[in-house]
Amino acid sequence: MVIVGDDPASRVYVNNKKKACGELGIYSEEYALPAETTEAELLELVERLNHKNDINGILVQLPLPKHINEETIINAISPKKDVDAFHPVNVGKIMIGNYDFVPCTPAGVMELIHESGISVEGKECVVVGRSNIVGKPQAMMLLHENGTVTICHSRTKNLAEITKKADILVAAVGKANFITADMVKEGAVIIDVGMNRLPDKKLVGDVDFTACEKLAGAITPVPGGVGPMTIAMLMKNTVKAAILQNDEKGAYV
Ligand code: NDP
User: Fold this and answer.
1) Residue 202 catalytic?
2) Residue whose CA is at the smallest distance from ligand 1 atom 48
3) Could you give the percent of the chain with pLDDT greater than 70?
4) Per residue in 109-122, pLDDT tens?
5) Is residue 219 within a helix (H) or strand (E), and if so which, with residue range?
6) 108 contact partners, CB below 8 Å, separation of at least 6
Protein backbone atom coordinates (compact mmCIF):
# COMPACT_ATOMS: atom_id res chain seq x y z
CA MET A 1 0.00 0.00 0.00
CA VAL A 2 1.32 3.37 -1.00
CA ILE A 3 -0.17 6.55 0.40
CA VAL A 4 1.03 10.03 -0.49
CA GLY A 5 0.15 12.98 1.73
CA ASP A 6 -2.09 13.12 4.76
CA ASP A 7 -5.67 13.10 3.45
CA PRO A 8 -7.67 11.79 6.45
CA ALA A 9 -10.12 9.76 4.32
CA SER A 10 -7.24 8.06 2.48
CA ARG A 11 -5.60 7.29 5.81
CA VAL A 12 -8.79 5.56 7.02
CA TYR A 13 -9.05 3.53 3.78
CA VAL A 14 -5.41 2.42 3.97
CA ASN A 15 -5.76 1.48 7.65
CA ASN A 16 -8.86 -0.60 6.86
CA LYS A 17 -7.07 -2.39 4.03
CA LYS A 18 -4.05 -3.04 6.23
CA LYS A 19 -6.34 -4.41 8.94
CA ALA A 20 -8.07 -6.71 6.43
CA CYS A 21 -4.68 -8.05 5.29
CA GLY A 22 -3.73 -8.72 8.92
CA GLU A 23 -6.99 -10.55 9.60
CA LEU A 24 -6.51 -12.77 6.55
CA GLY A 25 -2.82 -13.43 7.10
CA ILE A 26 -1.74 -11.49 4.03
CA TYR A 27 1.69 -9.93 4.47
CA SER A 28 1.55 -6.19 3.80
CA GLU A 29 3.91 -3.24 3.66
CA GLU A 30 2.90 0.39 3.87
CA TYR A 31 4.79 3.19 2.18
CA ALA A 32 3.56 6.50 3.60
CA LEU A 33 5.16 9.27 1.58
CA PRO A 34 5.05 13.02 2.25
CA ALA A 35 2.71 15.22 0.18
CA GLU A 36 5.68 16.86 -1.56
CA THR A 37 6.88 13.53 -3.05
CA THR A 38 7.60 14.04 -6.74
CA GLU A 39 6.07 12.01 -9.55
CA ALA A 40 9.54 10.65 -10.38
CA GLU A 41 10.05 9.47 -6.79
CA LEU A 42 6.67 7.75 -6.76
CA LEU A 43 7.37 6.12 -10.12
CA GLU A 44 10.66 4.84 -8.79
CA LEU A 45 8.91 3.26 -5.79
CA VAL A 46 6.27 1.64 -8.02
CA GLU A 47 8.99 0.26 -10.25
CA ARG A 48 10.80 -1.15 -7.21
CA LEU A 49 7.59 -2.82 -5.99
CA ASN A 50 6.91 -4.20 -9.48
CA HIS A 51 10.14 -6.18 -9.11
CA LYS A 52 9.87 -7.04 -5.41
CA ASN A 53 9.36 -10.79 -5.18
CA ASP A 54 7.54 -10.85 -1.84
CA ILE A 55 4.94 -8.35 -3.04
CA ASN A 56 2.14 -9.69 -5.25
CA GLY A 57 -0.21 -6.70 -5.21
CA ILE A 58 0.40 -2.95 -5.36
CA LEU A 59 -2.21 -0.43 -4.32
CA VAL A 60 -1.57 3.28 -4.70
CA GLN A 61 -4.26 5.05 -2.70
CA LEU A 62 -6.09 7.72 -4.73
CA PRO A 63 -6.46 10.65 -4.92
CA LEU A 64 -2.83 11.65 -5.30
CA PRO A 65 -1.61 15.21 -4.73
CA LYS A 66 -2.36 17.46 -7.72
CA HIS A 67 1.25 17.66 -8.94
CA ILE A 68 1.30 13.89 -9.58
CA ASN A 69 -0.45 12.55 -12.67
CA GLU A 70 -2.60 9.63 -11.48
CA GLU A 71 -2.80 8.09 -14.92
CA THR A 72 1.00 8.01 -15.22
CA ILE A 73 1.26 6.21 -11.88
CA ILE A 74 -1.53 3.71 -12.59
CA ASN A 75 0.02 2.92 -15.97
CA ALA A 76 3.36 2.24 -14.28
CA ILE A 77 1.97 -0.50 -12.00
CA SER A 78 2.57 -3.95 -13.42
CA PRO A 79 -0.85 -5.21 -14.63
CA LYS A 80 -0.05 -8.48 -12.83
CA LYS A 81 0.17 -6.65 -9.48
CA ASP A 82 -2.63 -4.17 -10.18
CA VAL A 83 -5.05 -5.44 -7.53
CA ASP A 84 -7.27 -2.36 -7.87
CA ALA A 85 -7.78 -3.30 -11.56
CA PHE A 86 -7.24 0.30 -12.69
CA HIS A 87 -4.48 -0.36 -15.26
CA PRO A 88 -5.72 -0.02 -18.86
CA VAL A 89 -4.85 -3.67 -19.55
CA ASN A 90 -7.11 -4.81 -16.71
CA VAL A 91 -9.82 -2.27 -17.59
CA GLY A 92 -9.80 -3.64 -21.15
CA LYS A 93 -10.14 -7.18 -19.85
CA ILE A 94 -13.13 -6.15 -17.73
CA MET A 95 -14.70 -4.64 -20.84
CA ILE A 96 -14.23 -7.91 -22.72
CA GLY A 97 -15.54 -9.90 -19.77
CA ASN A 98 -12.50 -12.15 -19.39
CA TYR A 99 -10.57 -10.79 -16.46
CA ASP A 100 -8.14 -11.85 -13.74
CA PHE A 101 -8.91 -9.03 -11.33
CA VAL A 102 -12.40 -7.84 -10.50
CA PRO A 103 -13.00 -4.09 -10.24
CA CYS A 104 -13.30 -3.93 -6.43
CA THR A 105 -16.33 -1.71 -5.76
CA PRO A 106 -18.52 -2.93 -8.65
CA ALA A 107 -17.58 -6.53 -7.84
CA GLY A 108 -18.57 -5.91 -4.23
CA VAL A 109 -21.94 -4.71 -5.47
CA MET A 110 -22.35 -7.84 -7.59
CA GLU A 111 -21.45 -10.03 -4.63
CA LEU A 112 -24.16 -8.35 -2.54
CA ILE A 113 -26.67 -8.96 -5.34
CA HIS A 114 -25.69 -12.64 -5.67
CA GLU A 115 -25.64 -13.30 -1.94
CA SER A 116 -29.15 -11.83 -1.71
CA GLY A 117 -30.38 -14.33 -4.28
CA ILE A 118 -31.21 -11.62 -6.83
CA SER A 119 -30.82 -12.35 -10.54
CA VAL A 120 -29.66 -9.56 -12.87
CA GLU A 121 -30.74 -11.28 -16.08
CA GLY A 122 -33.30 -9.27 -18.03
CA LYS A 123 -33.61 -6.65 -15.29
CA GLU A 124 -33.66 -2.90 -15.90
CA CYS A 125 -30.40 -1.77 -14.30
CA VAL A 126 -29.65 1.92 -13.83
CA VAL A 127 -26.21 3.10 -12.73
CA VAL A 128 -26.01 6.74 -11.69
CA GLY A 129 -22.38 7.82 -12.14
CA ARG A 130 -19.90 7.05 -14.91
CA SER A 131 -16.49 7.20 -13.24
CA ASN A 132 -13.75 4.86 -14.39
CA ILE A 133 -13.53 3.22 -10.98
CA VAL A 134 -17.22 2.71 -10.22
CA GLY A 135 -19.90 3.66 -12.75
CA LYS A 136 -18.40 2.33 -15.98
CA PRO A 137 -17.11 -1.03 -14.68
CA GLN A 138 -20.36 -1.42 -12.70
CA ALA A 139 -22.36 -1.07 -15.90
CA MET A 140 -20.11 -3.63 -17.61
CA MET A 141 -20.53 -6.17 -14.83
CA LEU A 142 -24.31 -5.82 -14.88
CA LEU A 143 -24.22 -6.16 -18.67
CA HIS A 144 -22.07 -9.31 -18.44
CA GLU A 145 -24.87 -10.78 -16.31
CA ASN A 146 -27.45 -9.89 -18.97
CA GLY A 147 -29.00 -6.85 -17.33
CA THR A 148 -30.43 -4.10 -19.55
CA VAL A 149 -28.17 -1.28 -18.45
CA THR A 150 -28.59 2.49 -18.52
CA ILE A 151 -25.78 4.76 -17.33
CA CYS A 152 -26.72 8.22 -16.03
CA HIS A 153 -24.46 11.19 -15.31
CA SER A 154 -24.54 14.91 -14.66
CA ARG A 155 -25.83 15.71 -18.18
CA THR A 156 -28.64 13.15 -18.09
CA LYS A 157 -32.04 14.68 -18.70
CA ASN A 158 -35.08 13.57 -16.70
CA LEU A 159 -32.97 11.51 -14.31
CA ALA A 160 -35.87 10.62 -12.01
CA GLU A 161 -37.85 9.19 -14.94
CA ILE A 162 -34.97 6.85 -15.71
CA THR A 163 -34.17 5.83 -12.14
CA LYS A 164 -37.85 5.13 -11.51
CA LYS A 165 -37.73 2.39 -14.15
CA ALA A 166 -34.86 0.59 -12.43
CA ASP A 167 -35.30 -2.89 -11.01
CA ILE A 168 -31.71 -2.55 -9.81
CA LEU A 169 -30.47 0.96 -9.04
CA VAL A 170 -26.81 1.64 -8.26
CA ALA A 171 -26.01 5.12 -6.96
CA ALA A 172 -22.37 6.23 -7.34
CA VAL A 173 -22.65 10.00 -7.46
CA GLY A 174 -20.91 11.34 -4.36
CA LYS A 175 -23.78 13.56 -3.20
CA ALA A 176 -25.47 13.00 0.14
CA ASN A 177 -29.10 11.84 -0.05
CA PHE A 178 -29.19 12.49 -3.80
CA ILE A 179 -31.56 9.60 -4.60
CA THR A 180 -34.90 10.40 -3.03
CA ALA A 181 -38.01 8.23 -2.66
CA ASP A 182 -39.74 9.83 -5.67
CA MET A 183 -36.89 8.57 -7.90
CA VAL A 184 -37.34 4.93 -6.97
CA LYS A 185 -39.69 2.18 -8.14
CA GLU A 186 -41.49 0.14 -5.52
CA GLY A 187 -39.67 -3.14 -4.91
CA ALA A 188 -36.42 -1.94 -6.51
CA VAL A 189 -33.03 -3.23 -5.39
CA ILE A 190 -31.13 -0.11 -4.31
CA ILE A 191 -27.37 -0.22 -3.91
CA ASP A 192 -25.68 2.79 -2.43
CA VAL A 193 -22.01 3.19 -3.32
CA GLY A 194 -21.75 6.80 -2.14
CA MET A 195 -19.66 7.81 0.85
CA ASN A 196 -20.26 11.38 1.88
CA ARG A 197 -19.21 13.19 5.06
CA LEU A 198 -21.79 15.59 6.43
CA PRO A 199 -20.58 18.75 8.24
CA ASP A 200 -21.19 16.93 11.56
CA LYS A 201 -18.75 14.22 10.26
CA LYS A 202 -21.54 11.63 9.90
CA LEU A 203 -20.96 9.24 6.99
CA VAL A 204 -23.94 8.93 4.62
CA GLY A 205 -24.52 7.48 1.17
CA ASP A 206 -26.05 8.89 -2.00
CA VAL A 207 -29.48 7.47 -1.17
CA ASP A 208 -32.00 8.92 1.27
CA PHE A 209 -32.04 5.62 3.15
CA THR A 210 -34.89 6.31 5.56
CA ALA A 211 -37.34 7.30 2.82
CA CYS A 212 -36.21 4.76 0.19
CA GLU A 213 -36.08 1.82 2.60
CA LYS A 214 -39.89 1.87 2.79
CA LEU A 215 -40.17 1.32 -0.97
CA ALA A 216 -37.21 -0.89 -1.73
CA GLY A 217 -37.25 -4.64 -2.20
CA ALA A 218 -33.67 -4.62 -0.90
CA ILE A 219 -31.34 -1.77 0.02
CA THR A 220 -27.76 -1.39 1.27
CA PRO A 221 -26.86 0.91 4.17
CA VAL A 222 -23.98 3.36 4.48
CA PRO A 223 -21.80 2.67 6.37
CA GLY A 224 -21.67 -1.11 6.37
CA GLY A 225 -22.85 -1.85 2.84
CA VAL A 226 -20.65 -1.59 -0.25
CA GLY A 227 -17.59 -0.21 1.61
CA PRO A 228 -16.57 -3.43 3.40
CA MET A 229 -17.35 -5.40 0.21
CA THR A 230 -14.86 -3.28 -1.73
CA ILE A 231 -12.12 -4.26 0.70
CA ALA A 232 -13.15 -7.92 0.55
CA MET A 233 -12.83 -7.84 -3.26
CA LEU A 234 -9.43 -6.19 -2.99
CA MET A 235 -8.30 -9.08 -0.80
CA LYS A 236 -9.71 -11.53 -3.35
CA ASN A 237 -7.67 -9.85 -6.10
CA THR A 238 -4.55 -9.96 -3.95
CA VAL A 239 -4.88 -13.69 -3.37
CA LYS A 240 -5.53 -14.18 -7.10
CA ALA A 241 -2.43 -12.12 -7.93
CA ALA A 242 -0.33 -14.29 -5.62
CA ILE A 243 -1.69 -17.48 -7.17
CA LEU A 244 -1.12 -16.25 -10.74
CA GLN A 245 2.41 -15.06 -10.00
CA ASN A 246 3.31 -18.28 -8.21
CA ASP A 247 1.90 -20.33 -11.10
CA GLU A 248 4.03 -18.31 -13.47
CA LYS A 249 7.13 -18.89 -11.37
CA GLY A 250 6.27 -22.58 -11.24
CA ALA A 251 6.36 -22.68 -15.02
CA TYR A 252 10.06 -21.82 -14.97
CA VAL A 253 11.06 -24.42 -12.35
P1 NDP B 1 -16.83 10.66 -9.30
O2 NDP B 1 -16.92 12.03 -8.72
O3 NDP B 1 -15.64 10.27 -10.06
O4 NDP B 1 -18.11 10.41 -10.22
C5 NDP B 1 -19.37 10.86 -9.86
C6 NDP B 1 -20.33 10.61 -10.97
O7 NDP B 1 -21.59 11.12 -10.59
C8 NDP B 1 -19.94 11.29 -12.29
O9 NDP B 1 -20.06 10.40 -13.35
C10 NDP B 1 -20.92 12.45 -12.40
O11 NDP B 1 -21.29 12.77 -13.72
C12 NDP B 1 -22.14 11.88 -11.66
N13 NDP B 1 -22.97 12.96 -11.19
C14 NDP B 1 -22.62 14.06 -10.49
N15 NDP B 1 -23.67 14.86 -10.29
C16 NDP B 1 -24.72 14.24 -10.88
C17 NDP B 1 -26.09 14.60 -11.03
N18 NDP B 1 -26.57 15.73 -10.55
N19 NDP B 1 -26.89 13.75 -11.70
C20 NDP B 1 -26.40 12.60 -12.20
N21 NDP B 1 -25.11 12.21 -12.09
C22 NDP B 1 -24.27 13.03 -11.44
O23 NDP B 1 -17.07 9.68 -8.07
P24 NDP B 1 -16.73 8.10 -7.88
O25 NDP B 1 -17.38 7.30 -8.93
O26 NDP B 1 -15.29 7.94 -7.63
O27 NDP B 1 -17.46 7.84 -6.48
C28 NDP B 1 -18.84 8.02 -6.34
C29 NDP B 1 -19.19 7.88 -4.87
O30 NDP B 1 -18.85 6.56 -4.44
C31 NDP B 1 -18.42 8.82 -3.94
O32 NDP B 1 -19.25 9.17 -2.85
C33 NDP B 1 -17.27 7.96 -3.44
O34 NDP B 1 -16.79 8.37 -2.18
C35 NDP B 1 -17.95 6.62 -3.35
N36 NDP B 1 -17.04 5.48 -3.47
C37 NDP B 1 -17.25 4.47 -2.59
C38 NDP B 1 -16.46 3.36 -2.63
C39 NDP B 1 -16.73 2.27 -1.67
O40 NDP B 1 -15.88 1.46 -1.43
N41 NDP B 1 -17.94 2.20 -1.10
C42 NDP B 1 -15.36 3.22 -3.59
C43 NDP B 1 -15.28 4.31 -4.54
C44 NDP B 1 -16.10 5.40 -4.45
P45 NDP B 1 -20.24 13.39 -14.81
O46 NDP B 1 -19.41 12.24 -15.25
O47 NDP B 1 -21.11 13.92 -15.86
O48 NDP B 1 -19.46 14.43 -14.07
Assistant:
1) no
2) 154
3) 98
4) 999 999 999 999 99
5) strand 218-219
6) 226, 228, 229, 230, 232, 233
